[in-house]
Amino acid sequence: NDDDSSNNRTSPAAVSTWQNLDTFVWDDDGTTVGSTATTTTTTTTPLNKIPTIRLPDSFPRLASALEPKHDSTTHYLPRFSAMLDYIWYSSAGSTKVTTTVAPMPTVEQLSKHVGMPSVELPSDHVSLVCDLKLGDDG
């Protein structure tokens, strides 16, 4: 799993959300913004060209506070949906217990008004909310 928090010293470019990057287009008709081309074009970026950023060892180790379900999404459009948002905490020397998690809307609820934002969801991202109890490992 590319989203595994045990590999948390790499850039967001390394997570599985970027698997669709090579098919991204700017407009619904497939033309790129600012393009003077008269034919439909697609802008692609091969995954091997996305730079990997290694954080220094002094950077705190981070872990995800939530365990998203396989179908969780925090951003929804008809042609793209993904879990783009996370709640991170520093895992060094602490034990995390997630005590309460706010419910996430389903894809059916998110698609009710085509995409986000909408009249029912005024943001382009779903808010993540949880209560955490952090304790000392020692």
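(the above was protein one; protein two follows)
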Amino acid sequence: MSRQSKRQGAPFVSRDAAQFSDELARRFRLLSKAANEYDAGDDDQVVIMAAILRVFLTDRLIDRVTPLDQLAFTDTCDRLPASAIGGYGYGITRFKVSAGLQSGSIVAPLGNAYREKQPPVAPFDEWWSKDHVIFPTNRQFRTREFVVYEMANTDGIHVDADLDADYDALTRDNHGFQLDGVMVGGNLASAAVRQIAWETQHTLHRALPALCGPDFPSSMHCSEGDQLFRVAAMREEAGD
């Protein structure tokens, strides 16, 4: 029941299980559409992806159809080496450089590393709110929940006057990379939300194939010669 209905005392009807299934399938299609348009160059679609992910994962629409906490979520995080204190191109984002080093961008790798094998999985709670998979430049590592919640609630559904400082930094964080003196494109916040969308699509298609079709890319588009880079910042050993 909406808050407006509560205020007015209006009558309401409850959705049944079939209607919740239909709504989940519809939002899966909307997520896929927004993701496809984002991949085609419409950066504005990232806030739509964040809003839909919030409905799925924070508002737990998935729970109305299948137990969310029992799902094994696709986990594409590339974890840092044990002795690393930071990393660029690790976590759920990558640094893509075009052929000839003409340009670069912070990107979502989608399923590039899993063309010939299935990605690992993780329990929902660990995947969503415990595992720190976003590695900002000189800031606290962050969870998937953090970036989706902040983008959806302060840059999407609402446009807040005050932003979380770490989230605001994520929206401008490209690790300071330059190619021929030109800053690379993209940012960690947008790339992370795009990757979380892909992981969620992959998870729902595995769990609910009749509702959530395979209408999402298996991997990101790369032109011939494009490369994905990662660099770990290692802890200095005593005496070095």
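Reviewer note on protein two: The chain has a mean pLDDT of 88.
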